[in-house]
Amino acid sequence: MNPRSRPARLGLVGLTVIGIALAAAGCERARTIEIDIRYSHFEQAALSVPAGVPIRFVIVNRDPIDHEWIVGDEGVHQRHRTGTEPIHQSRPTEVSIAAGATVETTVTFERPGTLAFICHLPGHEVYGMIGRLTVTGR
């Protein structure tokens, strides 16, 4: 056995053990879901994700106009129906998507339940730019 290869193999074994321990502890990598916007509609209008797992949303706006993706309960949506926030930058559950752009956001939903994702730009919700997100138990 080459004495130089032993430390490298021990390092690999150590990393493998750490990886198994993290998986057993319930630590998971972010899952990715792509949401396409076409003709002022979310093409993936019904989604299901597990609670407690980071979800990386890649939102692709294929329209020539701006949109937004806001996910939350009825209280969140009621505030946005009457609010005046033209751009969303600081909340992972509220993003603005410029015409032809792609944005990414990562969200971990802690509790099971049903939420809505809606574009609240003028007329978009009425036109049908609504989706449903079901958060399931693990």
How would you describe this protein?
- The chain is of the alpha+beta class.
- It has a single domain (31-136), classed as Sandwich (Immunoglobulin-like).
- It contains three helices and nine strands, in the order αβββββαβββαβ.
- It has a five-stranded mixed sheet, covered by helices on one side. Strands 2-1-4-7 form a four-stranded mixed sheet, with no helix packed on it.
Q: Trace the largest sheet across and list its strands.
A: 3-9-8-5-6
* Morphology: globular
Distance between the termini: 45 Å
Q: Pick out the low-confidence regions.
A: 5-26
CATH architecture: Sandwich
Order of helices and strands: HEEEEEHEEEHE
Largest sheet: 5 strands, mixed
Backbone structural class: alpha+beta
The number of helical segments is 3
CATH superfamily: Cupredoxins -  blue copper proteins
Number of domains: 1
CATH topology: Immunoglobulin-like
| Mean pLDDT across residues | 83
Label this structure with key terms.
138 residues; alpha+beta; Immunoglobulin-like; five-stranded mixed sheet; four-stranded mixed sheet; globular
